[in-house]
C-alpha cells in the first residue's frame, strides 16, 4: 500500500495489502471513478483499499454510504474533510486511532458542506461518526470540527489530548447528538457547542479538559447522564441558551464552578445532579425563570448556589446541601456551603435540606426583593467556624418572607428588613 507524504499508517498494512490484492484478482479492487461516484447508490467503502483516508472519504458517492477504517494508527498532518451527507465513518473502537501531528491549530477531522465557504446557508445532513479514537498535541486544533451539520450523530468515540476542543459543533441547527463517548485531556472544552439547536448530550464521560461542556448562543440543550470529573476550570458553561435541561449528571472536583448560566439564559432547568467537591456549585450570573431542584451539593467549597444581580425569578427547591457527615462522623474535613442571593429579586427557596455547612444556609447580599425562604431544614451549621452565624440571614431583603423553617436549636435567623 502506498503511503503518501503527510499520511502514515501502522498496524495492519500487510493485511490490508493482501486484502487489496485479493480484491483486485476478483475484479473488485478498482477505485471507483469520479463519474461512478456521482451516479452510484450508497455504498460500503473499505478505507484499506485506498491510498489515503482522504481518498476513501472522497470516494463516497452523492448518495452516501459507510466508510470503514480498519484498526491501525493513522498520522495526520492536515485535516481529513468529509463533505458527503448521509455518510457514516466507523472504525474498530480505540484500535482505529487518528493522530493529529499538525502543530498549526488544524483540526483532525472536519465535517462540513462542500460549499460552506461560498454559501453560509449550506448544510450537510445525517452524518454519523462512531467507534474510533482521535488524539492530538498541545499545538493541534480541535479533534472533531463539525460545521453546519444537521442531524449529526457522534457515538462511541474517544477524543483526547487535542490542543483545541475535543469536539466542536458550529452552526449545527438541527438535532446534533453526542452520546456514549469519552472526551479527555483536551486543551479547551471537551465539547464546544456554538449556535446549535435541539441538542442531545447523553451518557458521555468528560475528564480533565479545560471545561467539560460549553454551550453558547443555542437552544434546547438536553444533557443527561454524563460524568464530569476533575476539570481544570469549569464543568458546564451555558450562555444565551434557553429551554434547556441538565439532569442526572455527576459533576465533581472542578477547579472553578460546576455549572454557570450567563448572558440571557432563561427557562432552563437544573435537576437531579450530583455537584460534589467543586470549588463552586451553580452560578446564575444572568439567568431568568430557571429552576434548580433535587440536586445534591456535598462539599462545595464556596457558594453552592449563587444567584447574581443580573438574574431573577428563580426557584430553588428540594435540594440537599451537605458536608461528608455519615452516621456520627465526617469522612472528609472539607467545607460545605449553601445559597447566596446577590442583589436579585423574585426567588423561592423551599423544601431544601442544609446540614454541616461552614456558614449560612441562605444569605442575601445587597438589595434583594421578593425572596421567600420557607419549609427548609437547617442543622449543624457554622461547622468548624470560629463563631456561629445565623442559619438564614435575609436582613437586606425587602418585600420578602422568612417563613416556617425547621432550624436546629441554638441557631438564629435574621428576618427580612432587620
Describe what this molecule looks like in 3D.
This protein has a 15-stranded parallel β-sheet, with no helix packed on it. Strands 5-8-12-16-19-22-25-28-32-36-41-44-47-50 form a 14-stranded parallel β-sheet. The protein is 6% helix and 44% strand. By secondary structure, it is mainly beta. The chain is built from three helices and 50 strands. The radius of gyration is 26 Å and the shape is elongated. β39 and β40 (329-330) form a beta hairpin.
What is the fold's blueprint, element by element?
Elements: E1 7-10, H1 13-25, H2 34-39, E2 43-46, H3 53-58, E3 65-68, E4 72-76, E5 80-82, E6 87-90, E7 96-100, E8 109-111, E9 124-125, E10 128-130, E11 133-135, E12 144-147, E13 149-150, E14 153-155, E15 158-160, E16 167-170, E17 177-179, E18 182-184, E19 189-194, E20 197-202, E21 205-207, E22 211-216, E23 219-224, E24 227-229, E25 236-239, E26 245-247, E27 250-252, E28 257-262, E29 265-266, E30 269-271, E31 274-276, E32 280-284, E33 287-288, E34 291-293, E35 296-298, E36 302-307, E37 312-317, E38 320-322, E39 325-326, E40 329-330, E41 339-342, E42 345-350, E43 353-355, E44 362-365, E45 369-374, E46 377-379, E47 392-393, E48 401-402, E49 406-407, E50 413-414
Parallel strand pairs: 2-3, 3-6, 4-7, 5-8, 6-10, 7-11, 8-12, 9-13, 10-14, 11-15, 12-16, 14-17, 15-18, 16-19, 17-20, 18-21, 19-22, 20-23, 21-24, 22-25, 23-26, 24-27, 25-28, 26-30, 27-31, 28-32, 29-33, 30-34, 32-36, 34-37, 35-38, 36-41, 37-42, 38-43, 41-44, 42-45, 43-46, 44-47, 45-48, 46-49, ...
Antiparallel strand pairs: 1-4, 39-40
Amino acid at each position: 500500500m502506498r503511503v503518501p507524504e503527510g499520511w502514515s499508517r501502522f498496524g495492519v498494512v500487510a493485511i490490508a495489502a493482501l486484502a487489496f490484492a485479493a480484491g483486485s484478482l476478483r475484479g473488485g479492487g478498482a477505485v471507483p471513478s469520479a463519474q461512478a461516484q456521482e451516479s452510484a447508490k450508497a455504498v460500503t467503502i473499505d478505507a484499506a483499499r485506498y491510498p489515503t483516508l482522504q481518498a476513501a472519504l472522497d470516494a463516497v458517492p452523492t448518495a452516501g454510504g459507510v466508510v470503514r477504517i480498519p484498526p491501525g494508527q493513522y498520522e495526520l498532518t492536515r485535516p481529513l474533510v468529509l463533505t458527503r451527507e448521509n455518510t457514516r465513518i466507523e472504525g474498530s473502537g480505540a484500535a482505529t486511532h487518528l493522530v493529529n501531528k499538525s502543530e498549526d491549530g488544524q483540526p483532525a477531522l472536519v465535517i462540513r458542506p462542500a460549499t460552506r465557504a461560498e454559501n453560509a446557508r449550506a448544510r450537510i445532513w445525517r452524518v454519523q461518526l462512531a467507534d474510533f479514537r482521535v488524539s492530538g498535541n498541545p499545538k493541534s486544533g480541535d479533534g472533531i470540527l463539525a460545521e453546519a451539520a444537521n442531524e449529526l450523530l457522534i457515538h462511541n468515540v474517544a477524543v483526547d489530548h487535542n490542543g483545541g476542543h475535543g469536539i466542536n459543533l458550529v452552526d449545527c441547527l438541527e438535532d446534533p447528538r453526542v452520546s456514549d463517548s469519552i472526551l479527555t485531556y483536551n486543551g479547551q472544552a471537551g465539547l464546544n457547542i456554538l449556535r446549535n439547536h435541539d441538542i442531545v448530550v447523553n451518557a458521555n464521560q468528560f475528564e480533565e479538559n479545560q471545561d467539560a461542556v460549553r454551550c453558547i448562543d443555542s437552544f434546547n440543550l438536553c444533557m443527561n447522564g454524563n460524568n464530569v470529573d476533575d476539570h481544570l476550570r469549569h464543568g458546564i458553561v451555558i450562555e444565551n441558551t434557553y429551554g434547556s435541561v441538565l439532569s442526572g449528571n455527576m459533576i465533581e472536583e472542578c477547579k472553578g464552578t460546576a455549572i454557570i448560566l450567563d448572558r440571557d439564559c432563561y427557562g432552563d432547568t437544573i435537576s437531579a445532579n450530583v455537584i460534589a467537591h467543586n470549588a463552586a456549585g451553580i452560578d446564575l450570573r444572568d439567568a431568568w425563570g430557571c429552576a434548580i431542584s433535587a440536586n445534591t451539593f456535598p462539599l462545595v467549597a464556596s457558594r453552592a448556589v449563587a444567584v447574581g444581580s443580573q438574574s431573577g425569578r428563580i426557584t430553588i427547591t428540594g435540594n440537599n446541601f451537605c458536608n461528608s457527615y455519615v452516621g456520627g462522623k465526617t469522612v472528609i474535613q472539607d467545607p460545605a456551603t449553601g445559597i447566596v442571593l446577590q442583589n436579585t429579586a423574585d426567588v423561592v427557596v423551599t423544601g431544601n435540606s442544609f446540614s454541616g455547612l461552614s456558614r449560612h444556609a441562605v444569605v442575601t447580599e445587597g438589595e434583594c426583593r421578593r425572596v421567600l425562604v420557607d419549609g427548609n431544614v437547617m442543622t449543624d451549621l457554622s461547622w468548624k467556624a470560629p463563631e456561629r452565624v445565623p442559619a438564614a440571614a435575609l436582613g437586606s431583603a425587602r418585600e420578602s418572607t422568612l417563613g416556617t423553617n425547621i432550624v436546629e436549636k441554638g441557631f438564629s435567623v435574621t428576618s427580612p428588613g432587620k
